[in-house]
Design goal:
- The complex is a heterodimer of chains A (about 240) and B (about 350).
- Chain A has about 240 residues and is α+β, with helices and mostly antiparallel strands.
- Chain A is about 20% helix and about 30% strand.
- Chain A is built from 5 helices and 10 strands.
- In chain A, helix 3 crosses helix 4.
- With about 350 residues, chain B is an alpha+beta fold.
- In chain B, about 30% of the residues lie in helices and about 35% in strands.
- Chain B is built from 6 helices and 15 strands.
- In chain B, a hairpin with a 2-residue loop joins strand 13 and strand 14.
- Classes of the chains: A alpha+beta (about 240), B alpha+beta (about 350).
- Chains A and B meet through strand 1, helix 3 and helix 4 of A and strand 1, strand 2, strand 3, strand 4 and strand 6 of B.
- Strand 1 of chain A pairs antiparallel with strand 4 of chain B.
């Protein structure tokens, strides 16, 4: 499509149309992925052009789908820095007494998610699925990254289900590849107190855009795959998607 | 994972407002307000979504000036009055669009650090063996705890696209976030001259900004020990070049030449180039002249008097040299005055002023 110069100086506005059926696409300002309402084809913004991009809606109960980049990667741990001064957590005598009486208390108080990702060892290579949230949250550190850590740690099996409303995608695949290293470091350093830094070689084998179903649970959104939670108000654009449902 | 100590080292989470760009819808002609850095524009009138593209690969915008030449002249009069100078004269005023790189970005990452170790002296109250309480000084070690956390930052860096430090471009603070207009040479030339961006290049500017973002994120940890981090710059968006209007005004006040840079969008004084203190300059020049004159004249005079009357050298020297000293002072003051009037508006005062400023 030949862009036309408008009255707006050197800015050229090109109507956004589906790469497959040329139907007009509706989009938000910072969105990078678009799903055609007419033919259902997904397309992602690469530079200043649209290219087809498949999206997999995961099977499960939910009110809305939050987008994640699912990166199949070959991961090799290259460097590891340990802090020898770090000591294991020591409970006070009173707390230790309570814990001795109720062994399951720690698990109930500190919610843990299933962890299927094996420990990484220096020089060893693992094939992993890295999950990087692709939606915008009001606090990256608390919401976005945390979900990435939980999903990557849990390594859930994703089965394709029915499509639904998807919260806008704002992180491109290149951003997701960068963030995947951060998430991996957070997973490993979170498991082992003494780990203070890690270096990885990450080779991305395949990148998929995933829609993970989340159900409304009061002020929270809870996913049906690993039980991860996120504060609903923290997800930018959520209310609009829910109202359109 | 260890809990971060929020009180000791806060995480910098910065967010700044986005500017808006006024565009016209190509389908219906309606007004579109595009958020800075956005790649999609939506027309509120016809609900069409557009892809925002630029032929040069950089989004270029300009800020329409609001300060007229008369207002700029009034600003110089005001500045002259503040300096208690009466009778200022405007020499010239030129509006230029100065290119500024305006680069937004996000930094996400992971960081681990130890709280800095230090010794703290506390007063400990103890009871002595015979009853009364005594205060003892006790030295405690604190810090050294390990923390790990995710960090996130969003913000922008604005810096000049040309190396012209004398206009004070580094001081441009666009706090109003005005409505921008797309770069249009025809429109902009109606207001004034456009400075062409030369340095740094787009790639260098992007790298410069990335480094700046990371330094900002790490700055709260400058006192921390054993800092390890993994930081990534994301969502940097298309590079944006903002042409910012400034008035460059020159005026004379109290026989001194001033150069002032004014923000043509807000009217703020960005930069005022003040001439160096002239009295100090006069004194130094006079002393230098005297030394030179004394050296030049005293040698042949000494030789002459020695040949004529070997016994009365000191009296003759005093008789001749003292008036010469006086003449030298008058000559140098006059010379300095003439030179000043002729070359003050060039570079003499600036170079000498900078040099003198270093030593006085």
């Amino acid at each position: 499509m030949a862009p036309l110069k408008t009255e707006s100086g050197e800015i050229v506005l090109v109507p956004l149309r589906c790469v497959a059926c040329h139907a007009p696409l509706a989009a938000k300002e910072f969105q990078v992925f678009f799903l055609c309402d007419h033919c259902g084809v997904g397309q992602v913004l690469e530079g200043e052009r649209l290219v087809p991009q498949e999206v997999v809606f995961a099977e499960g109960e939910g009110d809305v789908f939050l987008p994640f980049w699912g990166l199949s990667a070959r991961v090799k741990l290259t460097t590891q820095v340990l802090d020898r001064e770090v000591r294991p957590v020591q409970f006070s005598e009173a707390l230790a007494e309570i814990l001795a009486q109720e062994p399951g208390l720690v698990k109930r108080v500190i919610q843990t998610y299933s962890t299927r990702m094996a420990d990484l060892k220096i020089g060893e290579t693992q094939n992993l699925s890295l999950y990087v949230p692709a939606f915008e949250a009001t606090n990256f550190a608390n919401y976005t990254a945390n979900l990435g850590v939980v999903f990557t740690s849990a390594q859930p099996e994703i089965k394709a289900g029915k499509p639904g409303r998807l919260v806008p995608v704002v992180y491109e695949q290149t951003d997701a590849e960068k963030l995947s290293e951060i998430i991996l470091v957070a997973v490993e350093a979170g498991r082992h107190d003494e780990v203070v830094d890690l270096g990885f070689e990450i080779k991305i084998l395949e990148a998929k855009l995933l829609g993970i179903p989340f159900a409304r649970d009061g002020d929270l959104l809870r996913d049906g795959l690993v039980g991860a939670k996120i504060l609903a108000v923290g997800v930018v654009g959520l209310e609009e998607e829910l109202s359109l449902k | 994972m260890a809990e971060p100590d929020q009180a000791s080292i806060p995480v910098q989470q910065e967010s700044s407002s986005r500017r808006t760009i006024a565009l016209a819808c190509r389908e219906c002609g309606g007004a579109i307000q595009l958020a800075e850095g956005a790649r999609i524009a939506n027309c509120p009138s016809c609900a069409t979504s557009f892809l925002v593209t630029t032929p040069v690969g950089i989004q270029r915008y300009y800020v329409p000036p609001t300060l007229t030449v008369k207002q700029a002249a009034l600003m110089t009069a005001g500045a002259a009055l503040v300096g208690q100078r009466i009778g200022h004269r405007l020499l010239d005023a030129q509006l230029v669009f100065a290119p500024l790189w305006d680069l937004r970005g996000e930094v996400e990452g992971w960081i681990s650090w130890k709280r800095p170790r230090r010794q703290v002296v506390i007063d400990e109250v103890r009871e002595s063996w015979d009853g009364p309480k005594v205060v003892q000084k006790k030295i405690l070690e604190e810090g050294g705890e390990r923390f790990k956390r995710m960090v996130s930052w969003e913000g922008r860096q604005v810096f000049p696209g040309i190396k012209v430090g004398e206009y004070g471009l580094y001081e441009v603070k666009d706090e109003r976030f005005p409505l921008l207009k797309p770069y249009d040479e025809g429109e902009m030339h109606q207001y004034g001259t456009i400075f062409t961006p030369q340095d740094p290049s787009t790639q260098d500017a992007l790298e410069h900004a990335q480094q700046y973002y990371q330094e900002l994120v790490l700055s709260p940890y400058s006192q921390a020990e054993e800092v390890h981090h993994r930081l990534k710059v994301t969502r940097q968006g298309p590079p944006m070049l903002l042409f910012y209007p400034i008035w460059i005004v020159r005026y004379l006040s109290g026989r001194k030449l001033y150069r002032m840079t004014l923000d043509a969008a807000t009217g703020n004084v960005i930069y005022l180039d003040q001439p160096p203190r002239r009295r100090r300059l006069s004194l130094v020049l006079s002393l230098l002249g005297l030394m030179l004159l004394t050296f030049v004249l005293s040698t042949p005079l000494k030789a002459y008097t020695a040949l004529r009357s070997p016994g009365e050298i000191s009296e003759v020297l005093a008789l001749f040299i003292m008036p010469l000293f006086g003449a030298g002072v008058v000559l140098m003051l006059w010379l300095e005055h003439v030179l000043w009037e002729r070359f003050a508006d060039r570079f003499t005062e600036r170079i000498l002023g900078d040099l003198l400023g270093r030593f006085f």
